[in-house]
Every structure is written in C-alpha cells, then in structure tokens.
Amino acid sequence: MVEAMKMENNIISTKDATVEKVLVKEGDKVDTTIKLVELSE
Fold first, then answer.
1. Displacement of CA 20 from its chain's centroid (Å)
2. What mean pLDDT, rounded, does the chain reach?
3. Which of 5, 10, 22, 39 is deepest in the core (most CB within 10 A)?
C-alpha cells in the first residue's frame, strides 16, 4: 500500500509473486520511475 497526498493506494501485481525486498522507507519521496520492491516468482 502506498500513501499519496493523504490517500492510500494498493499496488497489485499482474502475476503471482513474493516480495523479496522493499527498496524504499516510510517517508521517502518516490515517483513513477522509482522501483519500490523486488519480486520473485
């Protein structure tokens, strides 16, 4: 879940996967070019 402008947004994968690593911390500023997590199948 990502909070943006006081709204929470779910991030849904297009396939079954496991989150291996979270690449950002709470409070980090991100944009559409930032990788948020690493997934494994």
1. 12
2. 84
3. 39
CA 38 from chain centre, in angstroms, equals 9
Q: Using an 8 Å Cβ cutoff, are 9 and 1 in contact?
A: yes
Half-sphere exposure of 15 (CA within 13 A, CB side): 4
Structure tokens at 1: 């879940």
In this structure, the strands spanning 37-40 and 2-4 are unpaired
Predicted TM-score (pTM) of the model is 0.62
Query: What are the contacts of 31-37 at 24+ separation with CB within 8 A?
Result: 36/2, 36/11
